[in-house]
Amino acid sequence: MDFFFIIASAVKIFGFTFLVILPLVAYSTYAERRVSAVLQDRVGPNRVGIPATLFGFKKDLKLFGLIQPLADGVKGLLKEDFTPAHVRKSFYWMAPAFTAAPAFVSLCVIPFGSAVTIFGYEIKMVIADIGVGPLFIFAIASLSVYGITLAGWASNSKYPFLGGVRSCAQMISYEIALGLSVIPVLLFFGKLNLSDIVTYQAANGWLLLPLWNENGTLIHEAYWQTSSQQWLLLLPMGISFFVFTTSIFAETNRMPFDLPECETELVGGYHTEYSSMKFALFFMGEYAAMIVGSALIVTIFLGGWSLGFGLDSALLQTSEGDWKWYAGLIHMGAFLAKTVAFIIFFIWVRWTVPRFRYDQLMKLGWVVFFELALFNIFLAALIIAAPHIGLLNTFLFGIPALVITALLMFFITKANEVRRKAKVT
Amino acid sequence: MAIVKVKRPKLYWYEHLYLPAILKGLIITLKHAIASLRGKAQGGKELASSGLGVTMQYPEQKWDAQLPEYYRGVPALVTDEQKRERCVSCQLCEFICPPKAITIMPGEIQSEDPWAKVEKAPQKFDIDMIRCIYCGMCEEVCPEQAIFLRQDYAMTGVSRLEMVNDKDRLYEIGGIREGLVNKWNELK
Ligand code: SF4
Ligand code: SF4
Fold it and tell me: What are chain B's domains?
């Protein structure tokens, strides 16, 4: 068993990170350029293909420019790796690795498919099936801020430094909202293991789309008798989803929160002094973080690898409740499709929304999202607790407590605004 | 002008949420994307787009048909109706050229030549296209209307030497030009 476990893990690590995620990183840069081009009435990179003319053929194969990421990689490796004389060498060299590595490490807790049985062993399609999934991701992913801050500091020049400082402040502000916004989700599931969370969603409806449960789909009569709470929970879960997604945008330094590398103000931000593959590593880190972020959102809120709408149990399960042999593959495909869709959404938002001003960013993080997430926890707790404590207690204590918290949050926000006005005049 | 105080517009509560505005933006970009993918991008037709967006695909499609008359491309020398070179090597263009792209070696016209009264013609006339900034000063300053900026723009070469247009090349590009330019046309 142990030997088999090691082999299976190695295969999973190699297959998932190197054969799926790394190409996905490369192709999300390509997608970024193509999608942004389409959104802005341009064409984007459509030339790089197979240079067949080099081998004596008549025409080059263009392939819609799909070889572009490869060409970019080759270019990154072949360019001069220039280290300015005024930098702190050791940190300067470490920083790109610090940005890229955490994103890849945090991939390991994301379940990318349902369990597959091979030779009588059940293999879970997740590299590390640990009980603290989201916490692990937060812990590791927030390490990437070290890379950015170190890069800014080690570059020893003002623009990267400002970029590093901004990134640091931004990460801290949004980490809080990020952490608080998943608490309602965890309250609902009652566990932190991401594979279990997805399995639950496959059976009982996605968190944001609770259209089916063990009593059948929406049309099924039994559904309406058992699912009233599911529908009520949609409100806090919706808020959670919104805050979480926005915070992921901020965490991955994506537009509209890309102030650390804001070109118009800071030249290139923290990576101004970097060239060739070191710069490319920053880039890869950013895209890998985006992929992990999308995967996490999909896993928590949109049912991970499950097909949804009751299709999982209808199509892919045997009558004993086991997965059919091809279920794993279909689930992996579904997971990938959802993640890619979310990446495209990321890109779409980036090319639509303009960048925030820095004080707006801070205000949004500390005054709006922090309060919203806190209030949301109380709201979710009340909805989950209501059936247990009874109707009377809910109205006597629950709702007044909720109103008080809401008012408190509101006045904190207002107080902040009053102080700001006083300063201006 | 007097100082105009701009008042910040008062926002409704739903405008304060910013979400409707973001949603609107997303819809606008999506509309553009769909139009662009269908080959119906705004203004695509006027800009002779290749089908995706409004962009023209350069080496396959060219803008030549749409080039305006006043387009400032490669500067070149021209001959007049009698195929006589117009340039009298006064060197005004050489002096005015901001990046000093023009080098002229003036020469004398022998007395037996039918055009001997012109007295001078360039022996050598080089324009270094690596230096030229297509400003059109040479055209403007030339008293003989001998130098013009043509509509060619694709000057390429693999060495610096190749990028220097000598006299023969300049006449080849320039060709014959008849009549006066608008600058000298008193009616305009
Ligand atoms: S091109 Fe015109 S300005 Fe230049 S030397 Fe000849 S006549 Fe003079
Ligand atoms: S266009 Fe301007 S830069 Fe070019 S040769 Fe004429 S004067 Fe010189």
Answer: 13-61 (no CATH), 75-174 (3.30.70.3270)
pTM equals 0.78
Concatenating the DSSP letter of every residue in A16-84 gives: IIIIIIHHHHHHHHHHHHHHHHHHTT---S----B-GGGGT-SS-B-GGGTTHHHHHHHHHHHS-----
Look at residue A316 and tell me if it is in a domain. Answer: yes
Question: Residue A262 sits in which domain range?
Answer: 82-356
**Percent over 70 (pLDDT), chain B:** 94
Q: Supply angle C-alpha A162, A164, A170, rounded to 5.
A: 100
Question: Using CA atoms, how far apart are residues B102 and B165, in angstroms rounded to an integer?
Answer: 10
Query: How many domains, chain A?
Result: 1
What tokens does A78 get?
Answer: 């072949």
- In B62-121, the residues whose Cβ lies within 8 Å of chain A are none
State the Cα–Cα distance between residues A84 and A154, nearest whole angstrom.
11
- CA of B43, closest CA in chain A: separation in Å? 10
Q: Is residue A325 part of a domain?
A: yes
- Identify which of A266, A261, A281, A273 has the alpha carbon closest to the alpha carbon of residue A84: A273
- Residue A252's φ and ψ, nearest 5 degrees, are -90, 10
Residue among B77, B80, B85, B91 whose CB has most ligand 1 atoms within 8 A, to mutate: B91
Q: Is the dihedral of CA A169, A170, A176, A179 positive or negative?
A: negative
> What band does B183 get if pLDDT is binned at 50, 70 and 90?
very low
- Which DSSP letter does residue A321 get? S
Angle subtended at Cα A367 by Cα A380 and Cα A145, rounded to the nearest 5 degrees: 95
| DSSP code, position A353 | S
Does residue A138 lie within any of the structural domains? yes
pLDDT in tens, A42-66: 888 887 777 777 776 777 777 777 8
Q: Residue A38: which of B26, B53, B57 has the nearest Cβ?
A: B53
